[in-house]
Amino acid sequence: MTSMSKEAQDHLIWRGDPKGMFTVKSAYSILTNHVDTSGGVFSNLWQARAKPKVLTTAWRILLDRVPTRVNLVRRGVIANSTLCSLCNLSEETSQHFFLDCVFAQRVWSRCYRWISVLEAQNKDIQNHLMNFHLIHLSNKQNQVWLGLWATIVSCIWDQRNLVVYKERVPDDDEIFQNAQLHSWLWLKHMVAVSSSSVLSMLFPGQRMYNITGYLELWSAYCGMVSVKGVAAETKRSMYGK
Q: Which residue of 104, 121, 204, 241 is surrounded by the most CB atoms within 10 Å?
């Protein structure tokens, strides 16, 4: 039988740390150890080349910790419709919103067409990330490719918030263009090299029509050089012409 002392003071103990002290690191470790059972999902994510904010959003999406309508109803935050904010056809779960929604499917289809690879079917969002891998690219190149994945899901979520809070009309073209733009500008800033060198690193041997849209988007946004000039620079760098 346990005796109780009136003089002793109660205090909280965090079971995730041997010393009983709460730390963000220990909480993160518990979450990832509990969820990451598919062979390195989160280790792949944290190696991706993208903004920290983008990776954090993608991490929450993989954990199903974003406030989709289904999650909000489950937590008692809202009590109205759970239908998807973009298509209004199915329940807004993370699986539906980022993979199965018609708008999300259009975004992913554009992504796969852009790089000229076949689109694969995935059973869930974690499986989708693990399969977002190009076998002909190096590990460093695939880290950038994974960064684009994280940027796309982040931009899909941003579009949802624009629709919900700003009454915007869903636009899958805008989602993909924003993902291209954000990933491009971040990478351009980080590596501090010419646009052609970045493209050569990412897409060695790719035909010009696969990257022209990217060049147009970047140059039009930055207003630095003409599309024709960037395309010519890239062609010389990649093909020696």
A: 104
Residue 186 backbone phi and psi in degrees, to 5? -65, -45
Is the entire prediction scored with pTM above 0.85?
Answer: no
CA distances from 3 to 6, 7, 11, 118 (A): 10, 12, 17, 67
How far is the C-alpha of 188 from the C-alpha of 183, rounded, in Å? 8
Q: How far apart are CA 58 and CA 64, in angstroms?
A: 10
| Greatest Cα pair distance in the chain | 86
- Please state the φ and ψ torsions of residue 209, each to the nearest 5 degrees: -65, -15
Neighbours of 79 (CB within 10 A): 8
In tens, the pLDDT along 102-127 reads: 999 999 999 888 877 777 667 789 98
The residues spanned by each domain of the chain are 42-192
Where the chain has pLDDT below 50, the residues are: 1-2, 35-38, 193-194, 201, 203-241
